């Protein structure tokens, strides 16, 4: 076989040798990414602050190897070989979260030399994304997808579709639905891919924030996150645990939410957001516990006065009347004190109390307040899908049919929490001061109160 001449100082290199070099370089870059992805498989969580430096050391070793071999291949006459060389260089440089202009330059050259290089299209798309050039990023992922139906492009397009601005509620829903479908398509190619499961969870979580605060949507997000955690690569991604913590917070699984934020914080100590959200949730829970224990800090005389406002009229249409339950059947409600509540749905029951305080939360959803009954038992009520400024105030009477109850009893760090809460997903079932809540008090499209990390 006639040797093909290259430009390296050692003389000539044939096609077989060039392919062998590309194979070796590909392994070196793959090893680099496996080192980063499996860092906590081989290092204790206490090494998290050292991870960036360790990855940089590994990157420096890889780049030294790449640049050493690059001289033998950069002027190789066959475009495909040179394209692979530039792609591997760009991919290595692209390992860090921050934009790297050298990576963009190398990957752009790879695509010009070989437009069929799907992996290079995807890597270049991520470069543009880091650069906040979403349109070019989208073009790259679509360019890759035209050449090969692959999970990486589909995952990224799922994220981008949810980030694009929408002019209406309908358009917002359409973009999120497209994002969900892209993630499902990615999973159809690899049902065990934890990163795709994580993206699907984020798509459902975006729907919860942007379309409707539906508990079913939260459960879909949680189901996807649990699947993602089965993947050893995905389970060590701090953004997975952060977003899972967000979903758990809104599921009102507070201890698990705090633990997820803690995990995210430990995996990436330099990322401030998980610690901030954990601190905010602890502050909310601590404040809630104090307000429950002290009946909203109302004085005894005020409490006694408000107790006298509770009468049959305060139940409004629920005073001996019928109620259509979630199952669609018509039932007669029986009024019970808070002390008789059971965990879960209290079928065919109605509770009545007076508002003693609202509970401040750094997030605007849900609207939370403390409710006290005639026995002076105080509980927490959380209301979703309620329009801003349409909440109840101190002294209002509130009746809640078939309340969904959670008995919170847990400790985290040095704090103990023990209180009963009632969750309301549809404000229209509430009776305030003897009257049903009206439709104009419902929220329209919800804005994200938590940032979903893509």
UniProtKB/TrEMBL annotation:
It holds the Pfam family TTC5_OB. Keywords: TPR repeat. Signal peptide: none annotated. The keyword Transport does not apply. TPR repeats lie at residues 118-151, 238-271. The keyword Metal-binding does not apply. InterPro entries: TPR-like_helical_dom_sf, TPR_rpt, TTC5_OB, TTC5_OB_sf. SUPFAM superfamilies: TPR-like (SSF48452). Residues 333-445 form the Tetratricopeptide repeat protein 5 OB fold domain. The lineage of its organism: Eukaryota, Metazoa, Ecdysozoa, Arthropoda, Hexapoda. Belongs to the APC3/CDC27 family. This is Cell division cycle protein 27 homolog. Gene3D superfamilies: 2.40.50.550, Tetratricopeptide repeat domain (1.25.40.10).
């Amino acid at each position: 076989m006639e040797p093909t001449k290259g430009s390296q100082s050692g003389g000539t290199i044939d096609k077989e040798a060039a392919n062998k070099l590309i194979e070796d370089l590909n392994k070196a870059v793959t090893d680099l990414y496996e080192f980063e992805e499996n860092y906590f498989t081989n290092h204790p969580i206490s090494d998290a602050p050292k991870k960036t430096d360790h990855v940089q050391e590994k990157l420096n070793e890889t780049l030294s190897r790449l640049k050493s071999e690059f001289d033998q291949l950069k002027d190789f006459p066959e475009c495909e070989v040179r394209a692979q060389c530039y792609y591997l260089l760009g991919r290595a440089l692209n390992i860090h979260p921050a934009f790297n202009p050298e990576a963009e330059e190398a990957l752009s050259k790879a695509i010009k030399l070989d437009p069929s290089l799907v992996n290079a299209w995807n890597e270049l798309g991520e470069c543009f994304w880091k650069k906040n050039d979403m349109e070019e990023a989208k073009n790259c992922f679509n360019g890759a997808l035209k050449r090969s139906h692959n999970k990486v492009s589909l995952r990224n397009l799922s994220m981008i579709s949810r980030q694009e601005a929408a002019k209406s509620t309908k358009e917002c829903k359409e973009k999120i639905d497209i994002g969900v479908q892209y993630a499902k398509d990615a999973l159809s190619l690899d049902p065990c891919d934890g990163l795709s499961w994580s993206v699907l969870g984020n798509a459902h979580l975006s729907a919860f924030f942007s379309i409707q605060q539906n508990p079913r949507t939260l459960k879909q997000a949680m189901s996807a996150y649990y699947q993602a955690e089965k993947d050893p690569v995905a389970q060590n991604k701090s953004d997975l645990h952060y977003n899972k913590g967000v979903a758990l917070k809104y599921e009102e699984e507070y201890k698990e939410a705090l633990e997820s934020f803690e995990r995210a914080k430990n995996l990436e100590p330099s990322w401030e957001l998980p610690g901030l959200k954990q601190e905010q949730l602890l502050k909310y829970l601590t404040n809630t516990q104090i307000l429950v224990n002290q009946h909203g800090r109302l004085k005894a005389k005020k409490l006694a006065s408000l107790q006298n406002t509770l009468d049959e009229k305060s139940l409004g249409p629920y005073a001996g009347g019928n109620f259509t339950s979630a199952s669609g059947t018509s039932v007669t409600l029986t009024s019970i004190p808070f002390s008789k509540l059971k965990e879960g749905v209290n079928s065919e029951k109605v509770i009545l109390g007076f508002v003693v305080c609202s509970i401040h939360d750094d997030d605007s959803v849900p609207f939370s307040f403390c409710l006290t009954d005639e026995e002076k038992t105080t509980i927490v009520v959380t209301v979703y899908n309620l329009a801003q400024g349409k909440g109840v105030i101190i002294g209002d009477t509130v009746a809640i049919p078939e309340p969904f109850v959670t008995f919170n009893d847990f400790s985290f760090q040095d704090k103990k929490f023990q209180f009963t809460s009632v969750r309301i997903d549809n404000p229209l079932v509430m009776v305030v001061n003897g009257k049903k809540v009206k439709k104009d008090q419902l929220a329209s499209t919800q804005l994200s109160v938590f940032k979903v990390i893509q």
